[in-house]
Amino acid sequence: MKKILCFAGSNSSKSINNKLVSFAATQIVGHSVEVIKLTNYDLPMFGEDIEREKGYSVDLKMLHNKIKEADALVISVNEHNGAVSAYFKNTLDWLSRLDYGFLKEKKILLMSTSNGKRGAASALEYTKNVLPRFGAIVVESFSFPSYSENFSEETQSISNEVLLLGFTDVIQNFVHQIEQ
Fold first, then answer.
1. How many CB atoms lie within 10 A of CB 159?
2. Which of 15, 159, 174, 176 could serve as a FRET partner for 105 with CA atoms 20 to 30 Å apart?
């Protein structure tokens, strides 16, 4: 049984990426799955002066330990103006300063969603390219477009059949990859 940690890269209390990653967590069976919110870890805006003067916070170390303890990660990233959110980038900046290889050999399912037709594809692509710098192995990725049109929060299900098939396939492939 693998230990899987799931979180969204958003700091919004109404984050659809958090909803998507939480839904994905319910679709993974036979493993220990934990969903966390990054907002529970207080990280100031990164700056070398803050790092030099205050060092690494307890919250940063706790988040780092959560990631280190996991065998695999499910991350859903949001997009602001065609890029990954400053909030998520800040989290990566702090983690990489504490331990540049903080994702070493972590298998990752990377997702993104938005209410637009591209499903935050630009943020997904950026993150897919940057996470391997920290040692990650992105084994699957999935962009979920038009969230409000394609996901029913009432029934907690994907209403678009094509997206449901693709999403299910990605989850199954991810689980297969982490079991190897």
1. 12
2. 15
